[in-house]
């Protein structure tokens, strides 16, 4: 892969994120919006998992989950996260850190309604992250939900919503030959962004 130009330090970080995401959507074979989401308990025990980004604008980066899951419990107790996007085909990474807030009920309802019916039923049937005695128990609950709602509307469960990460730091990482990588860090100071290039 040819060496790419250095990261433009005059870029708006949200515009640069959108450009890199667009490149990923054109090159990544599966889930270009996949990201690692790291949370922590109040006493500092970290946990990380892969999720899908479901919204991004100047307000922040949105994902959805069951608030009674492990990550949901972490977020309610310690509302700070770190996100990591890694696009292997592009040899790029973006790291994002910041506090989270829940999205509005209207936003959560709209996104939930856009999901496939089976995904919505799964959210109702699943006690996410909790022990499951055997797979058939979950499948029975899924079938019961399917029978209950039939072809009618499938309501969003109260314990299922979205979180928006309002970034206070965004780092862009671009591979370069011999591990002489290009890194640039944007940090928020009130409504302003400060940017600096970092050593590889």
Automatic annotation (TrEMBL):
Q: Which cofactor does it need?
A: FMN
Q: What keywords were assigned to this record?
A: Flavoprotein, FMN, Oxidoreductase, Pyridoxine biosynthesis
In this chain the Pyridoxine 5'-phosphate oxidase dimerisation C-terminal domain maps to: 160-200
Pathway as given in its UniProt record: Cofactor metabolism; pyridoxal 5'-phosphate salvage; pyridoxal 5'-phosphate from pyridoxamine 5'-phosphate: step 1/1; Cofactor metabolism; pyridoxal 5'-phosphate salvage; pyridoxal 5'-phosphate from pyridoxine 5'-phosphate: step 1/1
Domain Pyridoxamine 5'-phosphate oxidase N-terminal: start-end pairs: 27-144
> Which residues does the annotation say bind substrate?
54, 111, 115, 119, 179-181
For this UniProt entry, the molecular function terms from Gene Ontology, in alphabetical order, are: FMN binding; pyridoxamine phosphate oxidase activity
Q: Which reaction does it catalyse?
A: pyridoxamine 5'-phosphate + O2 + H2O = pyridoxal 5'-phosphate + H2O2 + NH4(+); pyridoxine 5'-phosphate + O2 = pyridoxal 5'-phosphate + H2O2
Q: How is the cofactor bound?
A: Binds 1 FMN per subunit.
Quote any Pfam family the record assigns. PNP_phzG_C
Q: Which GO terms describe its biological process?
A: pyridoxine biosynthetic process
Residue positions annotated to bind FMN are 49-54, 64-65, 70-71, 93, 128-129, 173, 183
Q: What is its EC number?
A: 1.4.3.5
Top enzyme category: oxidoreductase
Q: What's the domain of life for this entry?
A: Bacteria
What is said about its interaction partners and assembly?
Answer: Homodimer.
Which family would the database say this protein is a member of? Belongs to the pyridoxamine 5'-phosphate oxidase family.
Give the function comment from the record: Catalyzes the oxidation of either pyridoxine 5'-phosphate (PNP) or pyridoxamine 5'-phosphate (PMP) into pyridoxal 5'-phosphate (PLP).
Name of the protein: Pyridoxine/pyridoxamine 5'-phosphate oxidase
Origin species: Gluconobacter cerinus
């Amino acid at each position: 892969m040819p060496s790419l130009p250095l990261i433009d330090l005059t870029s708006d970080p949200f515009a640069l994120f959108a450009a890199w995401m667009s490149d990923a959507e054109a090159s990544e074979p599966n889930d270009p919006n996949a990201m690692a989401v790291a949370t922590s308990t109040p006493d500092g025990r970290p946990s990380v998992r892969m999720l899908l980004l479901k919204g991004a604008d100047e307000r922040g980066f949105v994902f959805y989950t069951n608030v009674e899951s492990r990550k949901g419990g972490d977020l309610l107790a310690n509302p700070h996260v770190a996100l990591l996007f890694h696009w292997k085909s592009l040899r790029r990474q973006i790291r994002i850190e910041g506090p989270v807030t829940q999205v509005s009920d209207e936003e959560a309802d709209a996104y939930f309604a856009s999901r496939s019916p089976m995904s919505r039923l799964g959210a109702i049937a699943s006690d996410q992250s909790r022990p499951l005695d055997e797979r058939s128990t979950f499948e029975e609950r899924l079938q019961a939900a399917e029978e209950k709602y039939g072809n009618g509307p499938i309501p969003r469960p109260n314990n299922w919503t979205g979180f928006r990460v309002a970034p206070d730091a965004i780092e862009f990482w671009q591979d370069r030959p011999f591990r002489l990588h290009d890194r640039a860090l944007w940090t928020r100071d009130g409504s302003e962004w400060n940017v600096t290039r970092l050593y590889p």
